[in-house]
What does this fold into?
Amino acid sequence: MEDAKHTVSWNDGSAYERFMGQWSRVAGRVFLDWLALPKGLKWLDVGCGTGAFTETIQQNCAAAEIIAVDPAAAHVEYGQSRHTATGAQFQVVDARSMPFENGRFDAAVSALVLNFIPDREKAVAEMRRVVRPGGTVAAYVWDFAGRNGTAQHLNAALRQLDSVDTSGALNAESTSQDKLKDLFQSAGLADVEARPIEITVTFRDLDDYWESNTGFSSPASNSVKALTDDKREELKQMVKSKLPMDKNGVISYMARVNAVRGRV
It folds into this structure.
């Protein structure tokens, strides 16, 4: 039976946007600069979530077409509702079996989701299938293997206080650069490269950090909710002691994604 405390719920678009969407855009801009693809391409955004990265593609790539897919209907609905959604098509689709013909797109990309897809080998194979010869397949994920995600201080405090290790639920091992390269090479992609992308994560104060990282149903936040009130407060103070905070209470630190790309 699946342990509910260590699962991720994708059904709250606004909470996910606060938890992760803002950081997806920051990392996504660097990622797109690295891909350096020409204008006028047909893009597929796989696992689009609330559409944060879809929006980044729209703003930076002058795409001829963008189709954004996600298995969570609530996220697709949220993405469609964004005022910036004009020009992108959102569809409820399983990444492991996509309803697109071979070679339909010039580029298939995925932001912060590959490690959460069961049978991600099949998902990458599908991305390769729907991209034309010479086209690009690329992705980025949080560096959970190196414990460099946005909730790194919360996860460290959970391990210290309650011996909770979320790395299994996050499929942390799969997020290393070596594992990503292996995944893309095993799908038959050529010229596979991987690189880290570091971003600065900032919160206005401890409450902003806490609400952002516990308001969405992630493995860490579910573990927090399972604690008693006293334990939860103890955990919050432990997190506070770990966070880099300036004299005004502003919190700022480095988080890292690992990115990978390959050619069909």
About this structure: Residues 4-147+169-201+255-263 form a domain with the Rossmann fold fold (CATH 3.40.50.150). Residues 13-35 form the longest helix (23 residues).
